[in-house]
From TrEMBL:
Residues 1-21, 93-122, 786-827 are annotated as: Disordered. It comes from Hymenobacter cyanobacteriorum. The gene is rnr. This is Ribonuclease R. One of its GO terms (cellular component) is cytosol. Residues 701-782 form the S1 motif domain. Residues 786-812 have a biased composition (Basic and acidic residues). It is an enzyme of class 3 (hydrolase).
Length: 827
């Protein structure tokens, strides 16, 4: 394998040093040395040089004890801060000093009276994860001390009626409830100063915004309504609590009912007036495919095109591969190589090669497009790729991270073309046992482009071009997968909804994408490459600080959230034993097997996934709980993910003998990439919801079988089994009784008949309406009762809904105030 003529990279070593135990004093000392800082679990792990699951579990245990003893405080999620400096000083005092009663100098310097900005920097990590930006407008210095009854924080819109302001600082204030008429037109993410009120609501402090310090994005997407010569934009986002006035000269030929992007250029001081804006982009008549998808792009701040300088730069790159470049690379052009991708894919960023070795083992090459060969630091291409950070896959289009010239051309591993790649090459036997690994720059020549369907045919029939090679790799992939699950990987998977669209983007059908062996085979080899690249870099240096690398990490779920999920699962008769942290994955996998094929499968699996922590990019090697890997990176998709480009650059740098890279700039890029990934996922979900509503608009009056997927005081959500479209049955429309929500037991209950409806129950529903503008679907339950009973109940509902408050029933002489007596109380 790693012969002198092809060896350009050191080989990953398998031996690992015995890790040292993490003590409680070590954890406490980190807080003592940083008395004014908010520290997340990941930061603690990095400072303490954590490398194993055992050490991570030790830190969790120590944090729990320190919290119980009042030495540290939980602020939000997994972020903590020193609670009692004197108590910590006593805890860290040498035992001899404690016995003698002598007072040692405190190891913790008291925090100086200084501004939040000076104390935490421009981007403090406080209380809740959110975007950066806490400076005063026009760069004014922040005052050393704000008035005692005001708090600076970030707006988090909750409903059209109120928002929460998340305070900066150390968590001494809870989130502050502010009604929208007292927000001064602040929007999501804006930084404001709030004056606290004397009272509270629902146990939360209340306040009024007295000043908007920074407006993050004063642009709104919505539908414009023209009244005479004046325009009013009604926002698509239901949490935006005001319309925007557009004067005639700023309408720019917009017509009534158009979907537009408006930029607000005047925010009035008087809440009785409306903000004034200008139409800066018109998407066309609301409800149309182009208008709605473009509006989703604008709503999430996605780019519509590449800047001209980026396109020009990409067009200027030569297609010719220089001979001296080929000479620097390991040559795979004469080895059987092919790609397997979706049938409609155009960017092929990974290929597999296979050849049998003299010792009877197999050499499997995972070849990844060498994007960083073409996208150089300091170029416009690099700046744009870093900003976008990810390709976004909406239902009917892709918003690529890189221009088409690279993503579908130079970097795409198209068949019958020489292509530059960065490869991870493995020596495995037929049982999937790994013997050797090699990493380095390569050149390949793909012999065949397979769709997943074509590859699956080879697996099932054992016939066709390259059928033997595909089946050998498929058998290995099964062994690799079995080993992952044996080591604790989680089997829960989300179901991916796909659409069949006509030439105008109208959905002709909705279906759930089925993952077969061909998909899983590719996935297993990509997982192997990502894991081994991460392990290789981690093991290059045995002492701290380790070499900086981009890791994809996934924390173990929080115990409180797991317990909540366990209580929910228990309502369906499933018992989870979560006492042993090492058995959590086994318990979840057993549950996944038990619910397979049952009505509650999607509900429980979906909730289990939401119980898990979110995977993020970071420089801290904390492992991946869901995959059961100690170290994991993203290396295999650099055409569509910027973190993969970062991993390529770092790996190449270390293979060439480079010194350690500073961690701070890489960590900042990881945070940006994680945020962009979240934004992309939200935009993708919005486009899927729109297409589901558009599809169901042609199904009005048709009957479907579904399951209860959500419960609120307004109604219950039903997910149709065959196409995963979700709509609501209003609680007031459920026939046969009056129902109310029993939120503690995740169900609704009839007041008279005591009928119980809960998560996972099967229901037959009729499509009542589909609102494209609001992206909502309304169902009604199939009612098989006799017509005269249904008519009588409808008349009674109509009568009750028309009764005024304080209605008096003259036939009985009894009166009732709002809501009436218990027998007639409307819920």
């Amino acid at each position: 394998m790693n012969t002198p003529e092809n060896s350009r990279a050191p080989r990953a070593k398998r031996e690992k040093p015995e890790p040292a135990a993490i003590t409680q004093d070590q954890v406490l000392r980190v807080f003592a040395d940083n008395p004014t800082k908010v520290l997340a679990y990941r930061q603690l792990s990095r400072r303490l040089g954590v490398t194993t699951k055992g050490q991570r579990e030790e830190i969790f245990a120590h944090i729990k004890v320190l919290r119980k003893n009042g030495l540290i405080t939980l602020l939000q999620n997994d972020e903590y801060r020193l609670a009692d400096a004197d108590a910590v000083a006593a805890a860290l005092m040498p035992s001899s000093a404690r016995k003698s009663g002598k007072k040692e100098p405190s190891p913790i310097a008291p925090p100086r009276n200084r501004s939040v900005q000076a104390e935490f920097g421009q981007d403090p990590i406080v209380h809740r994860r959110r975007s950066a930006g806490f400076d005063y407008v026009d760069g004014d210095d922040r005052p050393e001390r704000a008035p005692s009854n005001t708090v600076i924080g970030t707006v988090d819109l909750a409903t059209p009626n109120f928002a929460f302001v998340v305070p900066e600082g150390t968590g001494e204030h809870d989130d502050i409830r502010v009604f929208t008429d007292q927000l001064k037109f602040a929007l999501q993410g804006d930084v404001v100063r709030v004056r606290l009120r004397s009272g509270s609501r629902d146990g939360r402090p209340m306040g009024d915004v007295v000043e908007v310090l920074k407006r993050v994005r004063p642009e709104i997407v919505g539908r414009i309504q023209i009244q005479g010569t004046l325009g009013f934009v009604k926002p698509d986002n239901r949490k935006v609590y005001f319309d925007v006035f557009v004067p005639p000269h700023l309408l720019h030929e917009s017509r009534n009912g158009d979907k537009v992007l408006v930029r607000i250029n005047e925010f009035p001081e008087d809440s009785s007036r409306q903000p004034v804006g200008e139409v800066i982009r018109n998407f066309g008549a609301a409800g149309g495919n182009e208008a709605e998808i473009n509006a989703i792009m604008a709503e999430f701040g996605l780019p519509f095109e590449f800047p001209s300088e980026v396109e020009e730069e990409s067009e200027g790159i030569s297609e010719v591969i220089a001979e001296d470049e080929i000479a620097r690379r390991r040559d795979f052009r004469n080895i059987t190589t092919f790609t397997i991708d979706p049938a409609d894919a155009k960017d092929f960023d990974d290929a597999l090669s296979i050849q049998k070795l003299e010792n009877g083992h197999w050499e499997i090459g995972v070849h990844i497009a060498d994007v960083t060969h073409y996208v150089r630091p300091g170029t416009e291409l690099e700046r744009e790729g870093k900003h976008r950070a990810t390709s976004v896959y909406l239902v009917d289009r892709v918003i690529p991270m890189l221009p088409e010239r690279l993503s579908n051309g130079l970097c795409s591993l198209r068949p019958h073309e020489d292509k530059l790649t960065f490869s991870a090459v493995f020596e495995l036997d037929e049982n999937g046992k790994l013997y050797e690994s090699w990493f380095g720059k390569t050149i390949i020549h793909s012999d065949r482009r397979f769709s997943y369907e074509e590859a699956q045919e080879r697996i099932e029939s054992k016939e066709g071009e390259y059928a033997e090679e595909i089946n050998i790799m498929n058998d290995m992939a099964h062994k690799l997968c079995a080993l992952r699950f044996k080591q604790g990987a989680i089997t829960f998977e989300t179901q991916e909804v796909k659409f069949r669209l006509d030439e105008n983007g109208k959905p002709l059908g909705v279906y759930v994408k089925e993952r077969k062996d061909a998909h899983k085979m590719i996935e297993e080899f990509m997982l192997l490459a990502n894991r081994k690249v991460a392990e290789f870099v981690f093991n290059l240096k045995k002492t701290k600080p380790r070499f900086t690398m981009v890791y994809r990490t996934h924390d173990a779920p929080e115990p409180e959230r797991l317990q909540t999920f366990a209580l929910f699962a228990q309502k369906f008769g499933y018992k989870l034993k979560l006492e042993n942290p090492k058995k959590i994955s086994t318990e979840l996998n057993n549950l996944s097997s038990e619910v397979m094929g049952k009505p509650e499968q999607n509900v429980l699996q979906g909730l289990a996934i939401r119980t898990m922590s979110k995977a993020i990019y970071t420089t801290e090697p904390l492992g991946h709980f869901g995959l059961a890997f100690d170290h994991y990176s993203h290396f295999t998709s650099p055409i569509r993910r910027y973190p993969d480009m970062m991993a390529h650059r770092l790996l190449e740098h270390y293979l060439l003998g480079g010194k350690n890279v500073p961690v701070e700039p890489v960590e900042e890029e990881c945070k940006h990439s994680s945020a962009r990934e979240k934004l992309a996922a939200n935009a993708e979900r919005a486009s899927i919801k729109f297409k589901q509503v558009e599809f169901m608009a042609d199904e009005i009056g048709n009957t479907f079988k579904g399951v209860v997927s959500g419960l609120t005081e307004r109604g219950m959500y039903i997910e149709i089994e065959e196409n995963k479209c979700e709509g609501m049955v209003r609680i007031s429309d459920i026939p046969g009784d009056e129902y109310e929500l029993d939120k503690d037991n995740y169900r609704i209950v009839g007041r008279r008949n005591k009928r119980i409806i809960q998560f996972g129950d099967e229901m037959m529903v009729v499509v009542k309406s589909a609102n494209l503008l609001d992206r909502t679907i309304d169902f009604e339950l199939v009612d098989d009762r006799p017509d005269h009973i249904k008519k009588r109940e409808a008349d009674e509902r109509k009568q009750r809904s028309s009764e005024p408050r304080g209605y008096r029933d003259h036939s009985t002489g009894k009166g009732h105030s709002k809501g009436g007596h218990k027998g007639n109380k409307r819920r």
